[in-house]
């Protein structure tokens, strides 16, 4: 499990789930169950969060949303926008505006079952 996690981290979520599953000798389904048990998300879900984090870091560094989405491994900006909204309940711009305007401990950081700014924070 640790190797699979490091692989996802090292690629910022830009690896197919089959690769860490094959390297661990586990089936994809077994890896998914282990990840869900430990993180609450499947490897694909963890990879999506990592790609969203990467896109937010790129945007904060001055990239356009389209460039940030592409560099973070999304097929195109509309695909990124749909994934982002599905995970956070907001468009990327609305999410970022809410993070800028809100304190770090506002209720938006504690929405059960949704990826929120508590997960999508900048690494230090």
TrEMBL record:
Pfam families: HTH_18 (PF12833). GO terms for molecular function: DNA-binding transcription factor activity; sequence-specific DNA binding. Residues 1-98 form the HTH araC/xylS-type domain. InterPro entries: AraC_XylS_family_regulators (IPR050204), Homeodomain-like_sf (IPR009057), HTH_AraC (IPR018060). Keywords: DNA-binding, Transcription, Transcription regulation. PANTHER family: BLL1074 PROTEIN (PTHR46796:SF15), HTH-TYPE TRANSCRIPTIONAL ACTIVATOR RHAS-RELATED (PTHR46796). This is HTH araC/xylS-type domain-containing protein. It comes from Streptomyces diastatochromogenes.
């Amino acid at each position: 499990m640790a190797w699979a996690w490091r692989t996802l981290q090292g690629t910022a979520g830009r690896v197919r789930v089959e690769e860490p599953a094959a390297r661990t000798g586990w089936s994809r389904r077994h890896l998914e169950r282990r990840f869900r048990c430990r993180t609450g998300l499947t490897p694909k879900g963890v990879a999506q969060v990592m790609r969203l984090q990467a896109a937010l870091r790129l945007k904060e560094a001055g990239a356009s949303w389209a460039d940030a989405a592409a560099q973070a491994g999304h097929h195109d900006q509309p695909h990124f926008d749909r994934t982002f909204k599905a995970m956070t309940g907001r468009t990327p711009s609305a999410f970022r505006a809410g993070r800028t305007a809100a304190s770090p401990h506002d209720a938006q950081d504690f929405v059960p079952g949704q990826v929120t700014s508590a997960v999508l924070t900048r690494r230090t």
